[in-house]
Amino acid sequence: MGASPALPPPPPPNLKVEKEEAATASSKAVVAAAAAHRPISTAHEVRGIYAHEDEAFEYLRKGWPKFETKAECMAFVRSHCRANPGSNPERPHMTQMITTLVNWEQVEKYLLGARREYDERWPARPAAAKIPDSLSENLWVSEDDAAASLVDGEIRKRLELPMHRRLTPFSVESTLRYLFEHMRCGIYVMLRRNKVAMFVPFVNENFQNNWGDRLRVEDDLETRTYYERKRSEVGGRVEHALASRSSWWANGNIMCNEHSSKGEPAEKSQLWGDRFVASLRDVLDAACSERVLPDCEFFVNKRDYPQLKYHVFEDQQQEPQPVEPYGFLVDADDRDPEADATLPRPHRSTSLAPVVSFYCSDRFSDIPWPPSEDWEAAIGTIMPPSFDHEIRDDGEIELDAEPRDLFTDAKFRQFDCAWDDKVETAFFRGTATGGGVTVLDNQRLAIASLSHEWKTAAARANGPAGLRERRAARAGREKLLDAALTGWNRRDKKLGAKPMTYIRPHDFLFEAGRDNFVPIFQQSRYKYLIYVEGHCAACRYGFMMRLGSVILKVESRCVADKIWFFPLLRPFVDHIPVRADLSDLADKIRWCRANDAKCQKIARNAKTLWDTYVSKRGLLDYVQLVVSRVAERFEYPRAPWLFDDDARTTAFEPLLPPKLANRDPASPCRDEGLCDRCADDLLREREAAEKENQRAAARLRRRDQRAPERPDLKRKAAAAGADHPEDSAGAATTDDAALRQRMMKARRNK
């Protein structure tokens, strides 16, 4: 056989390629190290409040489960409630979907402690430079869409207030204290590396207000007498009001003074309902999954009233300042700036992290946020509403709330009704929510009263209203208005300077109750649907936009009158406006009847508006917009191991501190020299050593001052100095440290 051909010589080593490959391997190692992190130290004690990868419960590691049918959702909830009922490690009776912290000790351990751990794992990255790129396809920042820019303008206007202008970690801590101590509850949110790192509900079980001694109750009655009279007049269950009014709280104009409807004390009750929390967490998870969200922190308010109110001075010489958000509790009108009440001094912070709320106002800095109902409508699936439950005597689980299947495709098809098949009547159903208790200060009571009045007038033989109604009936026309209340809402209410009171059904000529109930899908059979608020804006507006009917929007009289997409609305384009006192309601209904084609177009415009801006794409874009605008205001301390070039890298690349193992701490950790962290460590070590030397000298001085100066020790010390003239010479020009050393030596020799 012939000789084998000679192999070509190996190519010379390409040092550049090898260096790049090593860098790539190092980068992969960094990513792997980030993925192989240790879980948050307290993750096994709680549920639903940390990043999904830290969850102890398997079903939460992929996000909150969703279901196609109500039966599937209920089966899941019952199964979970039987297997894993408890949600709070120190309160085994609490059964919320997501752990709710109940005292400051828990806040320090599970919120602030975990916050520090996440800050070490995922240091906040500078975001402002990256935001324009991440919003490039966001429909709310389109230069060609003037309506969408109004929504962005509302967000910016609030964040430009002095309290939000420059945000730091201290702003977050100040807001946490304010919400916990002054407002009683809230939800803290931390976003890191395009994921929800923390979503933590908290409520103060030991809440004490600063207005209880000033709260006015009807006829200045004692609490017990007030509730005895209330029950004798309106009936209902026994109310277990807390004895001390300093323990009461409020949700908008509705007074709250029971930890439990069964009279259980705080330590035995649920303290704060878990409604909406799964949907609120889910919308953030979805936004992180489908959009780019920068690092930031903020708070979510799921109550019916905003929480950060500010006062604007008329002379413009002073900047706007935070004031008491619930001024009505001290007899102030929250719509009147001159009546603003000051905040307690501990909460007059100059910098507060933003709070996002379902219902907002121009007098508050709360940023509008999509309510859970809008998110459920956008995704069309069913989510668990609550884990609150009771176990009956027969062992079966009775749920506090059933899942809502209103927005599934199958259910929504029941709302389809052709325009020509709809009834030409203005329709409203709802409960008597609102801060007022008369037709003059409660718009829902007013519209129910008006409907009853028109109905009664039509039945009378004489009178212009009756004649019009009879003529319409002879012509085959429906009645103008069908408005009724499905419940009286017996809660205690407080409005402005009026005392706390309640609705008395016997004051009205009409009835309220379940007899007036009309299934929601039947309401789409009316051409005109009336939107009238209670004690705040109503989240049903988005749902009404989809029904193919004209919305008659009654002008608001309440404080919290804004919802996140309201800046988009235009009168006579997507709705028909009605005066707050309802004085033009009849004329507006007749106009609608006379302009049927225009009304059909208005109904289509409302539905198009929902499809474009309120559906899933628009809603997630809005969440991204709010988070981005908030992140623009944050100034986080730069991660101490980063160089300037590192700070300009992508905001979502995992950057870990350099490894210190197998490296001389005194040597440079990079070619450029010591990084910021190592330089700071070295400086701190030197400062610590200097302080220790100072403390040692101080201890010696104190000991010498306490011990009597014995002559024999002094003589021996002097003799020692004679034996060592160089020491005594030095002592003449220095402090007494050398003398003390010789005295100590003399003591030892003795």
Strand and helix layout:
Layout: H1 15-35, H2 70-83, H3 104-121, H4 131-134, H5 146-159, H6 162-165, H7 169-183, E1 185-192, E2 195-203, H8 223-234, E3 249-251, E4 254-256, H9 277-290, E5 296-301, E6 309-311, E7 321-323, E8 355-357, E9 367-368, H10 372-379, E10 389-391, E11 397-399, H11 409-412, E12 423-431, H12 443-459, H13 464-474, E13 481-487, E14 526-531, H14 541-545, E15 550-554, E16 576-578, H15 585-594, H16 596-614, H17 616-633, H18 644-647, H19 676-706, H20 711-723, H21 725-733, H22 737-749
Parallel strand pairs: 5-8, 8-9, 12-13, 12-14, 14-15, 15-16
Antiparallel strand pairs: 1-2, 1-5, 3-4, 6-7, 10-11
- Main sheet summary: 5 strands, mixed
CATH class of the domain at 405-625: Alpha Beta
Number of strands: 16
Indicate the structural class: alpha/beta
Strand % is 5-15%
Backbone shape? globular
Helix content: 25-40%
Can you tell me the CATH architecture of the domain at 405-625? 3-Layer(aba) Sandwich
Molecular structure report:
The chain is an alpha/beta fold and 750 residues long. Among the domains are: 405-625, Rossmann fold (3-Layer(aba) Sandwich), CATH 3.40.50; 656-707; 710-750, no CATH class. It contains 22 helices and 16 strands. The protein has a five-stranded mixed β-sheet with strand order 2-1-5-8-9, with helices on both faces. Strands 13-12-14-15-16 form a five-stranded parallel β-sheet. Strands 3-4 form a two-stranded antiparallel ribbon. Strand 14, helix 14 (541-545) and strand 15 (550-554) form a beta-alpha-beta unit. Helix 16 crosses helix 17 and helix 20 (711-723) packs across helix 22 (737-749). The longest helix has 31 residues, at 676-706. Residues 1-8, 15-19, 26-35, 641-656, 658-663 and 726-735 have low confidence and may be disordered.
